[in-house]
Amino acid sequence: MVKLSGQLICKSLEESEKVRQLLPEHKKLTREESGCISFDVTATADPLVWLVEELFVDQKTFAAHQLRTKNSLWGTETRSILREYKIFEH
C-alpha cells in the first residue's frame, strides 16, 4: 500500500476558496479511481491549511492517480499551492 499524508498550504484566502470550490469534484474523481482505498482532504482551524490523507493499493495505482491529478482541472488550478506531503509504502 501507498499512503500520502500531509498538508495543502494556501498563501491567501483566495487560494483556499479555490480549493473549496474544486475539492468536491477532485474527491469524487479520486475516490472512483481503481486502487483508491481512501482519500480525504479536510479543512483545519487555519483557513489556509488543509489536511490531506490518501491511501492506494500499490505504487502503480498511486502513480496513475498522480498523473491524472497533475493533468486535471484540480492540478492546473491548484498547481501554485504549497504541498507538504510524506509518502509511505507498506
Task: Describe what is shown at a glance.
The chain has 90 residues and is an alpha+beta fold. It is 40% helix and 36% strand. The termini are close together.
Commentary on this structure:
By secondary structure, this protein is an alpha+beta fold. It has a single domain (2-89), classed as Alpha-Beta Plaits. It has helices spanning 13-31, 59-70, 73-77, and strands at residues 2-9, 36-43, 49-56, 82-89. The chain has a four-stranded antiparallel sheet, with helices on one face. Strand 2 and strand 3 (49-56) form a beta hairpin.
List the topology elements.
Blueprint: E1 2-9, H1 13-31, E2 36-43, E3 49-56, H2 59-70, H3 73-77, E4 82-89
Antiparallel strand pairs: 1-3, 1-4, 2-3
As for the number of domains, it is: 1
Strand content: 35-45%
> In terms of per-residue confidence, which ranges show pLDDT below 50 for 5 or more consecutive residues?
none
Spatial arrangement of strands, main beta sheet: 2-3-1-4
Helix percentage: 40-55%
Distance between the termini: 5 Å
* Helix/strand order: EHEEHHE
Short descriptors:
36% strand; 4-stranded antiparallel sheet; Alpha-Beta Plaits; 3 helices
